[in-house]
Amino acid sequence: MAAKSTEPVHIDGQLTFLDTGVEETAAPSDLADASAADVDAAPNSDEVDSDPTNLLTGPNTRIRAGNVMHRARAGAVRGAIDAIARRGLRGLTMVEAADRGGLARATLYNHVRDKDALLDLVLTAELERLGAILAGATDLAAGLAAVADEVADHPAIAGIRAHDQAALGMLAAADGVAVRAAVADALATRGRGADATNVDLVLRWLASFVTVPADAATRRAQARTLARTLG
Questions:
Q1: Which residues 6+ apart lie within 8 Å of 66 measured at CB?
Q2: What is this structure's pTM?
Q3: Long-range contacts of 55-58 (CB under 8 A, 24+ apart)
Q4: Do residue 71 and residue 152 come from a single domain?
Q5: Last-in-domain residue among 93, 113, 133
Q6: 61 and 34: one domain?
Q7: Separation in Å, CA 187 to CA 79, 115, 133, 204
Q8: Which of 37, 123, 137, 142 is nearest to 80 (CA)?
Q9: Is 124 left (phi over 0), alpha (psi -120 to 50) or beta?
Q10: pLDDT tens, 85-132?
Q11: Secondary structure (H, E, C), 104-168
């Protein structure tokens, strides 16, 4: 599900947000915090060119706005992972994700409209991160072991194991475009077959640690064996 930004809803003169059917009214402090975050995107005299036409449209303004968005999304991911680690998927709320991620609640709703969109953001971000770990490894076996460690020891996955066993199948089935591309690239870079069969084999092996994390020594031994067998 693609995350879409949405504007807060005004009901009877109050700024109101809806989260999985529960109505929540933003506190004034939340709105003040959100406004403060937006100010970060505004230019200042030390960072923009002297040309006044750059004050609203210059490249520095766009870069700062992008940095603010990146920080907000990173905070949302961090807060959601922390909340899931503690209480599982069913215990995750938008309010807790915002609080644990250091975000104003209004700011979180500016980036993700609901819990489903937040989970989609978390999954996308974490799959991209795992792909980057594999792509940057010194050799294939080390990269496979590193990603296996991340999956097995991921705090959110551990929280789901503890509280939402039924959701583990959904996680195990998620390969992600970024991870598939990173696996294929890692295989090709090291002279291994980067066809769909090999990529699927790696992904199924990694997915096994969602449900059964195993120990670090086992993961490393399996990574070496898998790296040797990928032709």
A1: none
A2: 0.69
A3: none
A4: no
A5: 113
A6: yes
A7: 33, 35, 14, 15
A8: 123
A9: alpha
A10: 999 998 899 999 999 999 999 999 999 999 999 999 999 899 889 989
A11: CHHHHHHHCCCHHHHHHHHHHHHHHHHHHHHHCCCCHHHHHHHHHHHHHHCHHHHHHHHHCHHHH
| Tens digits of residue pLDDT in 194-213 | 999 999 999 999 999 999 99
Quick count: other Cβ atoms within 10 Å of Cβ 49? Answer: 12
Total count of domains within the chain: 2
Domain hosting 185: range is 123-229
The reply to whether 3 falls in a domain is no
